[in-house]
Design goal:
10-stranded antiparallel sheet, about 210 residues, mainly beta
């Protein structure tokens, strides 16, 4: 979308991201891939509040005195990226809520392409953080590009600000006239800082 900056946080099935991936194989099938995703807000507000839709996709976060429309998804594209499964259209969905956590259990299915994944997301908030603990389990033999945690971040709040991904960083454009490619780098976090002074807002994504 023109008003968002998409970020692909982790390709779990094929990329070993330092400190982000644990792999467990049980009799070779099914394969269970665990990764942890941390979304941290640093702003005027010390606490984080979030809105999550019925499928377990983050829709917005409290940032200072307002809200930031950050949207997340879990995507498993077919080899070649021509088709993909996502939380947009789960085959089955189960929601569990406890006193401290919210749990979404989804099944993503494409029988023609022999793609089937069970996705389990455990979400909780603590000390200004919204934490996603995601487990993806392959249930069929179809070839995929991997499992991705996808984030769409609105451009306007960070226009003219800065970004930092490990040793790479730079300035963000004031307007997004075309798609831009920031970096491809191994790192524990990526940070976006707004240009609004003196109370600059930061969005920190840690995994």
């Amino acid at each position: 979308r023109d008003s968002t900056l998409p970020i692909m946080v982790a390709r779990v099935l094929q990329m070993n991201i330092e400190n982000a991936l644990k792999l467990e194989t049980r009799n070779s099938k099914p394969e269970t891939f665990l990764f942890f995703f941390f979304l941290i807000i640093l702003s005027v507000s010390a606490s984080a509040q979030s809105v999550i839709d019925a499928s377990g996709r983050l829709e917005c976060l409290q940032l200072g005195n307002g809200w930031l429309n950050v949207q997340t998804n879990v995507i498993t594209p077919k080899k070649g990226w021509k088709k993909k499964l996502s939380l947009n259209e789960p085959k089955t969905l189960r929601f569990i809520k406890t006193s401290s956590r919210q749990i979404w259990e989804s099944s993503l299915l494409n029988e023609t392409e022999r793609l089937k994944f069970d996705i389990r997301q455990i979400v909780h908030e603590t000390r200004g953080r919204v934490i996603f603990d995601v487990q993806a389990t392959a249930r069929d033999e179809g070839e995929t590009e991997g499992v991705f945690f996808w984030i769409d971040i609105p451009i306007e709040p960070f226009a003219g600000g800065t970004w930092q991904l490990g040793s790479h960083g730079g300035n963000l454009p004031l307007k997004l006239s075309s798609e831009i490619y920031l970096a491809d780098n191994r790192a524990n976090e990526i940070v976006f800082t707004s240009a609004n002074a003196p109370q600059q807002s930061k969005l920190k994504i840690r995994f």
